Amino acid sequence: MSFDPLYYPYASRRATVYARNGMVATSQPLAAQAGLDVLRRGGNAIDAAIAAATALTVVEPTSNGIGADAFALVWTGGKLYGLNSSGPAPKSLSYKTLLDRGSTEIPKYGWIPVTVPGAPAAWAELSQRFGHLSLTDVMQSAIAYAQDGYPLSPTLGRNWKLAFGNYRRELTGDEFKHWFETFAPNGRAPEIGEMWRSPAHAQTLQSISETKAQSFYHGDIADRIDRFSRNYGGYLRKEDLAAFQPEWVEPIKVDYRGYQVWEIPPNGHGLVALMALNILNGLEFTEKDSVETYHLAIEAMKLAFADGRKFIADPLSMRVRVEDLLSPAYAEERRKLIGQEALQPEPGQPPQGGTVYLATADKNGNMVSYIQSNYMGFGSGLVVPETGISLQNRGHNFTLDPNHVNVLEPGKRPYHTIIPGFLTHEGTAVGPFGVMGGFMQPQGHLQVVMNTVDFHLNPQAALDAPRWQWLQGKSVEVEHSVPDHIAEALARKGHHIVRPLGSGGFGRGEIIWRDKHGVLAGGTEPRTDGQVAAW
């Protein structure tokens, strides 16, 4: 990877971190330290990823939990492996069920959007296939933080308070009382610096670690989830949990100016980032902070998202092949649509044929790009009584349109927003990267890759750089750090420029690159409480 380690064109709170023996980059310092502790005790990058991921369910519950989904890209033994641990809709739920009830859309909260949680199975699967230490050993820090408590960090505390205010307005049914008992035990959100603990969460994590997640899908925890669902008219059953298995998948990629950018295949939307990069492959950029660079990247992303929203679904339901969407010929067709004015994106016709991200690396060359999420912060608003399990609401991404590939059907996985990324060059690992944040994620991936490959920014500078986010139509949200003259010039090109009132939803990323000498270089997100822990 060619970049100037001292080049910082943007104001930064942090410098790129360098190390040789191991590195863990996460959005929460306590989770990063949990992963580093495992590396120091003889664990590998996979063990460290599990340690950080399980700790994040405790120390950043505003973004993920035990009831989350997960995806991973694992580099080991000179090969990249992909793990899809996203759960399907219950077998008793379909679009017809909801239409018959008079529903016009899938709600954000409650039992209807709850799908089978995949994260516990991901931890067990990664540990069994690639880990060095036992799952019980690896999850010690997570269990201790849940049992003994920890003080809230600044971004965590702010997000917790926002979620509490929203849930107090939105969650009025009796089924939601367990969320408030667990996450607002004093009738309010805990404050920044205040201790919070969840002994029930600790007991659940202990059971998962000791049974390698069997208790979650086949045992006592599964019984509790089933009983809670039945008591409140939910559709999720123990049979749905018992039938779930994580899936090892072949990662997909595009070649971008000599580097290979890898993503998980659908039902995740990493394909959107790859389609956009494929379009940009035929264009040249002379400088990063120019109107033309912003314009071309935004237009490519709009076109890729238009295709993604039409074609991406559970792979068993897709009507278009991934290889056709990533073909150079199709990228050329889409590229021709980009002009000097902002376009209204429409899908093409290819040939027929709340989230946490973490990155880890060890001294032996193993590297992991890992992401897990409940979606929309805490998720469905449902917490399984006396377990600390906040259930995800990934089913909200389904549609009730029977003609759409992403229509809700029994046992089907939804269009998924969480995506881990990975970069290689000439058959060797450069490293893991990711930018969490719903539909911002492929847009963050695009911008991080461009910052790295096109403009040679070091990992921290690549994350510090001002970001934009396409919203819909011609609307584009830009950070306040985007210069006024660029924003105004984009507006003259027909873009509807929006500057958010607050910090905005521009994602939170982590990067670890490895050079040819085995030296690790890590960057962490300045927009959250992130940390790179290394030795």
Give structural notes.
The chain folds into two domains: 17-246 and 356-397, no CATH class; 249-353 and 418-534, Gamma-glutamyltranspeptidase, small (S) subunit (Glutamine Phosphoribosylpyrophosphate, subunit 1, domain 1), CATH 3.60.20.40. The strands form five sheets. A seven-stranded antiparallel sheet has the order 1-20-19-15-14-9-8. It has helices at 29-40, 45-59, 95-100, 119-130, 135-138, 140-148, 154-170, 177-183, 199-211, 214-217, 220-231, 238-242, 270-280, 291-311, 322-325, 328-335, 441-454, 459-464, 484-492; strands at 17-19, 22-26, 69-76, 79-85, 150-151, 195-196, 247-249, 252-256, 259-263, 355-362, 367-373, 383-384, 389-390, 421-425, 428-436, 468-472, 475-478, 496-498, 508-514, 520-524, 531-534. The model has no long low-confidence stretch (mean pLDDT 94). The chain starts with 16 loop residues before the first strand and ends with a strand. Helix 1 packs antiparallel against helix 2 and helix 13 (270-280) crosses helix 14. It is globular and about 60 Å long. It has 535 residues and is an alpha+beta fold. The protein is built from 19 helices and 21 strands.
State the main characteristics:
single chain; alpha+beta; 7-stranded antiparallel beta sheet
What topology emerges from the helices and strands here?
Elements: E1 17-19, E2 22-26, H1 29-40, H2 45-59, E3 69-76, E4 79-85, H3 95-100, H4 119-130, H5 135-138, H6 140-148, E5 150-151, H7 154-170, H8 177-183, E6 195-196, H9 199-211, H10 214-217, H11 220-231, H12 238-242, E7 247-249, E8 252-256, E9 259-263, H13 270-280, H14 291-311, H15 322-325, H16 328-335, E10 355-362, E11 367-373, E12 383-384, E13 389-390, E14 421-425, E15 428-436, H17 441-454, H18 459-464, E16 468-472, E17 475-478, H19 484-492, E18 496-498, E19 508-514, E20 520-524, E21 531-534
Parallel strand pairs: 17-18
Antiparallel strand pairs: 1-20, 2-10, 2-21, 3-4, 3-11, 4-7, 5-6, 8-9, 9-14, 10-11, 12-13, 14-15, 15-19, 16-17, 19-20
Helix pairs in contact: 1-2, 2-4, 2-6, 6-9, 13-14, 13-16, 13-17
